[in-house]
Amino acid sequence: MLIQENVALAPLTTMGVGGPARYFVEATSTDEVREAVRYADAHRLPLFILGGGSNLIVSDRGWPGLVLKMAILGINHRHGRGTAYFDAGAGEEWDGFVAATVAHNCAGVECLSGIPGSIGGTPVQNVGAYGQEVAETIDSLVALDLKSGEEQEFDKEDCGFAYRTSVFNTRQRGRYVILRVTFALKHDGEPKMAYRDLQKYFSNRGSARTLANVREAVRQIRASKSMLITPGDEDARSAGSFFKNPVVSAKQFEELKRRAASQNLAIPRYPALDAQKKVPAAWLVEHSGFSKGYGNGAVGISRKHALAIVNRGRATAAEIVAFSDEIRRRVQESWGIQLEPEPVFVG
Ligand SMILES: Cc1cc2nc3c(=O)[nH]c(=O)nc-3n(C[C@H](O)[C@H](O)[C@H](O)COP(=O)(O)OP(=O)(O)OC[C@H]3O[C@@H](n4cnc5c(N)ncnc54)[C@H](O)[C@@H]3O)c2cc1C
To answer: What's the pTM value of the predicted model, to 2 decimals?
Structure first.
């Protein structure tokens, strides 16, 4: 196992900002993960687990300890009665895994096509898009407990999944290294067509609603919003949505409606968000003075998606954080709502 020094982290993230890792190691097996953890313990180094780097803002100073790049690979699958179980190494690329499940005609993650990052990153924030979340299909996972040094199996219920959260980014943040994840998918199942954008795509084209076509549709819709990492697309140099959709109380929603009405505006309603008492963060951002394409320095808002803060080249982490703070302040002033960032801030 090779421990490297002063490794630049910016190129290992989709946002492309931040300083170096003081020490850096790639772990391709559980034994290598254990060895890296022992190294960090012995040298009293703070440990950070890096997946695909698609949900990170790394500080300009970098990470003062050891960065462990998760690189455990391998996908196996077995069939039960109508259910197909897929075990995947945490270092596998997520979208390649989705492609494999669709190729085996298994339903359950097709709407999550095109999300960047690793298998191990998906349970952390319970990745979701187009009406699906990994919480619906994760059967169990195995993680190394950094406190006890033991491997621990988590059933879905142990993971504490909710909107963009799990125990791994809340109560137990930093305690576990996810090694493998098992998904339970439906063999020959129907694709999920809950989202309006997807329904529109199919009614415009009249193509068959197969898993493969839904995967392709999701990828095309994502590409049109720069939510697919496409070489040369500057608006995709982001960490995805920068803010979560805020969950509001009935009282807060009434206040929001009142403020909107005083400006002759109406808060858009989406059934999926309504059901969870969420309001669209993108609308709040756009109606606080930050339209798509805003900003002409190194940092701005994507021209195709109001929730994506993009690095337009040579931005620093400090500039990104200052810009996101400005958006949060303006949304708070205009609408009385505190936006919560979605990416993880490192160092
Ligand atoms: C263009 C774009 C579009 C996106 N679209 C979506 C979307 O539609 N829906 C959505 O939910 N997200 C989206 N994201 C965010 C991101 O892709 C997901 O959150 C992804 O699952 C992060 O995985 P990662 O491997 O890149 O994790 P990283 O960014 O490397 O890490 C994120 C966090 O997870 C932890 N982590 C990663 N791997 C492990 C592991 N093996 N064990 C323990 N902890 C680990 C890290 O320590 C860190 O705290 C998007 C991002 C981009 C850039």
So the answer is: 0.96
